[in-house]
Design brief:
The chain is an alpha/beta fold. The protein has helices at about 15-20, 35-45, 50-60, 60-65, 70-80, 85-100, 120-125, 140-145, 155-175, 185-190, 190-205, 245, 250-265, 270-275; strands at about 1-5, 25-30, 105-110, 130-135, 180-185. The chain has 14 helices and five strands. It is globular.
Amino acid sequence: MIKILIGGCDRSGTTLLGSLLGTIEGAVVTPESQFKTEFVERFGLEEKLTDDHISWLLNHWRFLLWDFSKEEKSMIRDAVTDKSLEYFCEVAVKCYAKKHKINNPIIWIDHTPNNLRKTSVINDLFSKGSVNYIHIVRDPRAVYSSVKDLDWGPNTAFFGAKWYAVNIASALANEVPNNIYRVKYEDVLDSKEKTLKSICLNFGVDYILSERTVSSFKLPNYTKNQHSKIKTNKLDKSSAITWKEKLKASEIQELEYQLSDIIISLGYKLTLHNSCCRRNN
């Protein structure tokens, strides 16, 4: 099974991109899977899963969001006893595909944001060369605008800038050694088909849209309000620039003050005022 792992700073569009890739024939998009790296960090790379290991995985709150029935979890347990964590992941993904009536799944789309901060763990977990990474980046001012009113994450521009810088730094540092393919959130909105085709071409995947009219991805109930604007067939292009209206001038100034070099290096422009008065005095 081809593995395409999407990562990036939270609120940068990992879920949106995962949903869009779910329209490709043979793709199955699962909920986030932080349990895979947390298992390795807790237990190490065990060659064979014990009953206790499997119980821990099946009851991890992130895995519970995959919404398997008692019977499905029992089937998974029977299939992975004395097998590896990599095998557990593949069985779970195939079971999830079957649950959602996705025939012949050949591509696993995983949109866990911290994938790019955990590449060393992930590379050890899966067979060498079997993982393909995508780094989706988004204008940090838009990211902060998207996260500041949620019940998690930073709610001031100062801490928003620090939070973004920490998240983006590890992802950027891992790009070259892991041959990570970068896409921009704004390009996804502006040229969806072109972006999806470029991703498929880069990973050697045929760009064939599924006969399904919607993505294979199902949002967990708890996160639906956070991703209420995700629409497979019609994207809201204005969401790329709504930060200009939603943020106060002081918030934009603080973000640009802290992140000017990152903003520019990612290909975004500073506002006219801040571009003229960056810290150089």
